[in-house]
Write a structure and sequence with these properties.
Layout lengths: L3 H23 L11 E2 L5 E3 L2 E2 H17 L4 H17 L10 E2 L5 E3 L4 H18 L2 H16 L18 E3 L1 H12 L6 H19 E2 L5 E2 L2 E3 L8 H4 E2 L1 H18 L2 H18 L11 E2 L13 E2 H18 L2 H17 L11 E2 L19 H18 L4
Antiparallel strand pairs: 1-2, 3-4, 4-5, 6-9, 7-8, 10-11, 12-13
Helix pairs in contact: 1-13, 2-3, 2-4, 3-4, 4-5, 4-6, 6-7, 6-9, 9-10, 9-11, 10-11, 11-12, 11-13
């Protein structure tokens, strides 16, 4: 039997005594503003390039902690300085957000990546709540409008695919919009909120979720919603699916839709069974729905964010429905995650493990790993455990 009170304290202390202080003290660039994300095991900077989506994620994280936890000046100051760096350097004045910048803010990579946009919107939306700054709110609104306008072609003119031959649509944008719409709901009109929520729920739960494949979620489809028998069309990313399911559960709570929550829990359990490595434990990064060799060479690695997002989905699934199967999986995954991803000597968690569970990269942050999945996950799990303890397990 799980000790929920002990678990709650474990996730809370890891967040507030380990992970948050690491990013607060190690990542801020006091000379130019913004954040370093390429940090080695001890938090030393090994590369100074700044990746816009990770800048946005860190602004969001410290704004969220300030709004929902504690009005600590150091958290708000951290968020504001990062946002001011982004406001000045990270877009082209028309709110097309670059992918990466030099340390002092010169553009390095064009605004091809929609996640630069989504996390800029999240960042400025959350910070507008913390500050009441209307300029931040307007940046979030304009960026959201830009995202919606790019839904049919997220990469825009930077799309390298030849037009018309194989038009595919990706799961990642409707998935992130499920979360983003809730994040900036305070800045949107009711019609936009309702329309976007309904469209995203439809795309995630009725288009990319495929009953004929046993209830798994695929990453790419033909634009008409049919399956594509190609590398991209056969691709399954269990972590993406699992992350999206706790977004859907949150939408189910927001919309008071028990049916949506139950379907999300069912899908979570399906994806856990599908993506779990029966030999070594942990969740595969990429899979091919037909069992063919994936084109991603890192397909069998175990990644930090996949496991943390799955923990959130499983615990929320238990909390909302009482599913004992969710609880059993949560306990199994909790044990694996804390054993393999937590660095017992230095703060923050490992990001990249081999299939066998050994550390592959001696880093705490880089081009893809920043101040987001670990602290957000610890916060979400802590708060869900808090609710479970408050209500007497359910």
């Amino acid at each position: 039997m799980l000790d929920y009170d002990k678990l709650e304290k474990q996730y809370k202390s890891e967040l507030l005594e380990n992970v948050v202080p690491f990013w607060l003290t190690k990542s801020q660039d006091e000379e130019f503003g913004g954040y370093f994300t390429c940090l080695d095991r001890k938090g030393n900077v090994y590369d100074e390039d700044k990746f816009v989506w990770l800048q946005g994620r860190e602004v969001w994280l410290f704004s969220m902690l300030y709004n929902k936890m504690d009005k600590k000046k150091e958290w708000l100051d951290c968020a504001i300085q990062g946002a001011e760096f982004m406001k000045k350097h990270a877009h082209d004045r028309d709110y097309n957000w670059y992918f990466s910048l030099t340390r002092d803010g010169k553009p390095l990579v064009e605004p091809y990546n929609i996640f630069s946009y989504t996390f800029a919107a999240m960042a400025f939306g959350q910070l507008s709540l913390a500050t009441g700054n209307e300029e931040y709110a307007e940046i979030a609104r304009k960026t959201f409008e830009k995202i919606i306008s790019k839904r049919d072609n997220p990469k825009g003119k930077w799309n390298k695919a030849y037009p018309g031959t194989r038009n595919l649509k990706s799961f990642s944008l409707p998935m992130i919009l499920c979360n983003l719409t809730l994040e900036i709901e305070h800045l949107l009109d009711n019609d936009t909120i309702e329309k976007t929520m309904n469209e995203c729920i439809h795309e995630v739960m009725e288009v990319f979720l495929r009953p004929e494949l046993g209830g798994i979620i695929v990453e790419n489809l033909n634009v008409d919603g049919s399956l594509s028998d190609t590398f991209e069309g056969r691709l399954v990313n269990p972590g993406h699916g699992l992350e999206s399911m706790w977004f859907i559960m949150d939408l189910g709570v927001r919309l008071n839709r028990k049916d949506l929550i139950e379907k999300a829990v069912e899908t979570t359990l399906t994806l856990m069974e599908y993506g779990w490595d029966k030999k070594y434990g942990g969740i595969f990064y990429f899979m091919d729905r037909k069992g063919f060799p994936p084109q991603q060479l890192e397909w069998d690695q175990k990644l930090w964010w996949v496991h943390i997002e799955a923990l959130i989905a499983l615990l929320k699934g238990y909390q909302l429905t009482g599913s004992e199967e969710c609880l059993t999986w949560f306990e199994k995954l909790h044990d694996y995650t804390w054993k393999h991803f937590k660095d017992t000597e230095y703060p923050e968690w490992w990001g990249y493990l081999s299939r066998e569970g050994n550390v592959l990269l001696d880093l705490k942050g880089g081009k893809w790993k920043g101040c987001f999945h670990v602290p957000r996950g610890l916060y979400q799990i802590w708060k869900t455990l808090e609710q479970i303890n408050y209500t007497g397990n359910l």
